[in-house]
TrEMBL record, chain A:
Heme c binds at C56, C59, H60, M161. Gene3D superfamilies: Cytochrome c-like domain. It comes from Mariprofundus erugo. It is found in: Membrane. Residues 1-24 form the signal peptide. GO terms for cellular component: membrane. This is Cytochrome c1. The keyword Metal-binding applies. Binds 1 heme c group covalently per subunit. Keywords: Heme, Iron, Membrane, Metal-binding, Signal, Transmembrane, Transmembrane helix. InterPro entries: Cyt_c-like_dom (IPR009056), Cyt_c-like_dom_sf (IPR036909), Cyt_c1 (IPR002326). The chain crosses the membrane at residues 201-221. Its main location: membrane. The keyword Iron applies.
Length: 231, 405
């Protein structure tokens, strides 16, 4: 079990780095901050789920993630009681849907908040992007964009989402806690973007390992069959 | 093992009714192949393998995929939702879908290597002109199939890619607008477009399978070229396809599958090259993505299109850049096939490969004045290459070609 987790974490890191490195700087604006995210860490993903349901879900949905999924995915692994408490009267097969009506959202924020089910796949930089946005609220140096709508990492800097973690003007002593919250929710979102990714990487080790062995055998076979061919 | 099977009574029964033994002998165990083929000759069998994988995975995807642009919650559509259901809820749906999506790119990787090999060693020259021409038809159908397939997830890049490409048809005189509307099934890309693209995405691979059959048949009539580019006369220069090349192809399959599965399991989006980031955003006809670019395998031709100020000219030149491939066997009249014995051609063809990669890079990147100029220079060389071949044999001093392998 220990070894399996180690392999998982290692492969997850390598592939995240590989995919992150290729896309991180493709956009414009400052380089994204690096988020300490581990999609195999159940504790971090669960903390992220808390942040998501308590803060993000005020406006955002994750419609492809069902309450049942919160029990079924071993990376989250909530108990039936925990899920019942979370879902209230929603059926188990419902997605994580925000109570905010899209029409009301349009009136309040000028646009409908995007669904976050696959957000780390849908933005260059993935989890780093989400983390950077959440901790990227600043005062506009030009003084044009009102506080809470200026984000260093958002393309064009003017973001409709008002500083959800109250990052702007936070007390120095809260920095570590807020960064942790932002990373945790980034981990949760990175996980749900592709909920079979850990399973995929474990199976991948076996598949690729087998294929390397198979190729070696086929290579020896080829050499054996060809040894009587004169050049 | 094959010998043993061929000695059984069941095989004898089948043979009497089909002539299976004669086919196996003429096409496999006694099908003569030059003995000096290098590993560049592995890509043909790999392309066939990927075609089979694409068809198989595609059949299973179609059992769950729903071609409908009807809106669902959160700005998504039935089509987009069904793809996400495959990724999340269908047992091993993620595997099938990543195999298919990565397979599309893998298909072009092996086919471009296959074409590059044909160019370098002069495999398009007589008597293999028709073999080459059938191959170009396959390339065009593949590009069509890939283009139709890319619309199906109904993401932002699906929608806008389809909009840009179908727009091109509108640039053609007289029939343009009609063609464009016929393709779209309306004035804009929408639900009818999705339905006909799904239908065509199912049809094209069937066409491919049939034409690939023709390609292999044509190959078995004129036989394989070889790195020396010379005709093979004696039995000492040939070996039977089976077991020599079946085992060599199998080894190639092993290497290919290792790399293919590495990407599928560890980096299926390939950093946005195989599945573009913007295609995880649901299609929105009111919001153009900041930068529309086709997937990497179509970007060289996209650059040619963008290199011309006039849209019509761009479309025509893009068409010409593909059509000229048909003419290649007749443009290049040199008696020597392989680049090994054609010093000038060798440099030209290597520069041509570099030029196609540069074109691909330009088409993938957001347009800047510098990149545009680079793209135009590469486009010029792309066409120059073919026309230079027309006069090249007149002054190229070829090296002496060996009599036998």
């Amino acid at each position: 079990m220990k070894l399996k987790q180690l392999v998982l974490a290692a492969t997850a890191t390598v592939s995240l780095l590989a995919s992150g490195a290729a896309v991180a700087n493709e956009g414009h604006g400052p380089a994204l901050k690096h988020a300490e995210v581990n999609v195999t860490d159940q504790a971090q993903i669960r903390r992220g789920l808390d942040v998501f349901t308590n803060i993000c879900m005020g406006c955002h949905s994750a419609k492809y993630v069902t309450y049942k999924g919160l029990m079924d995915y071993p990376e989250i692994g909530l108990t039936r009681e925990q899920v019942d408490e979370l879902r209230g009267s929603h059926p188990l097969t419902d997605g994580l849907i925000s109570d905010l009506n899209p029409e009301d959202a349009k009136v309040s924020y000028g646009k409908v908040p995007p669904d976050l089910s696959i957000i780390t796949n849908a933005r260059r930089g993935g989890a780093n992007y989400v983390y950077s946005i959440l901790t990227g609220f600043e005062h506009d140096p030009a003084g044009k964009v009102p506080d809470g709508n200026f984000n260093e990492y958002f393309p064009g800097n003017r973001i409709a989402m008002p500083d959800p973690l109250s990052w702007l003007g936070h007390d120095e002593s809260e920095t570590a806690e807020l960064e942790k919250q932002a990373q945790d929710v980034s981990a949760f979102l990175a996980f749900i973007s592709d909920p079979h990714q850990n399973e995929r990487r474990v199976i991948g080790c076996w598949v690729v390992g087998f294929l390397i062995l198979l190729s070696l055998v086929l290579w020896r076979l080829k050499v054996e069959v060809w040894k009587d061919v004169k050049h | 093992m094959l010998d043993k099977i061929m000695k059984t009574r069941l095989f004898a029964w089948i043979d009497e009714r089909t002539g299976a033994e004669a086919i196996i002998k003429s096409q496999l165990t006694e099908y003569p192949v030059p003995k000096n083929l290098n590993y560049m000759w592995n890509f043909g069998s790999l392309a066939l393998l990927v075609l089979v994988l694409q068809i198989l995975t595609g059949v299973f995807l179609a059992m769950y995929y729903k071609p409908s642009a009807a809106l669902t919650m959160g700005g998504y559509t039935v089509a987009f939702d069904s793809v996400e259901r495959i990724m999340r809820d269908v047992n091993f749906g993620w595997l099938i879908r990543y195999m298919h999506a990565v397979g599309a790119s893998a298909f072009f990787v092996v086919v471009y290597m296959h074409i590059g090999r044909g160019l370098y060693y002069g495999s398009y020259k007589g008597p293999r002109e028709l073999l080459w021409i059938i191959g170009v038809v396959i390339l065009l159908i593949m590009q069509g199939a890939a283009f139709f397939g890319y619309l199906l997830p109904w993401g932002q890049m699906s929608f806008w890619g389809a909009t840009v490409i179908t727009n091109l048809f509108g640039a053609l005189p007289v029939l343009g607008e009609y063609l464009q509307q016929l393709l779209r099934g309306g004035f804009a890309v929408g639900d009818p477009t999705l339905n006909r693209f799904f239908s065509l995405h199912y049809l094209f691979p069937l066409l491919l399978a049939a034409i690939v059959g023709g390609h292999v048949h044509a190959l078995h009539v004129v036989h394989s070229n070889n790195p020396e580019g010379i005709d093979v006369h004696s039995d000492a220069e040939r070996i039977n396809f089976h077991p020599y090349y079946t085992v060599k192809d199998a080894f190639g399959v092993g290497i290919f599958l290792t790399l293919y599965c590495y990407v599928i399991f560890f980096n299926p989006q390939m950093g946005g090259y195989f599945i573009e980031v913007d295609n995880y955003v649901p299609a929105n006809n009111l919001q153009t993505p900041p930068h529309i670019a086709p997937v990497w395998y179509l970007t060289p031709w996209y650059t040619i299109l963008r290199s011309f100020e006039s849209k019509l000219l761009g479309v025509l030149m893009m068409g010409a850049s593909l059509a000229i491939l048909f003419l290649l066997p007749f443009l290049d009249r040199s008696k020597v096939r392989s680049a090994r014995y054609r010093p000038v051609f060798k440099q030209m063809v290597i520069l041509f490969f570099v030029c196609v990669i540069v074109l691909g890079y330009c088409g993938h990147s957001a347009p800047t004045p510098t990149l545009k100029l680079v793209g135009q220079i590469a486009t010029t060389y792309y066409f120059l290459f073919f026309f230079a071949l027309l006069i090249l044999p007149k002054f190229e001093k070829t090296k002496p070609v060996p009599d036998h392998i």
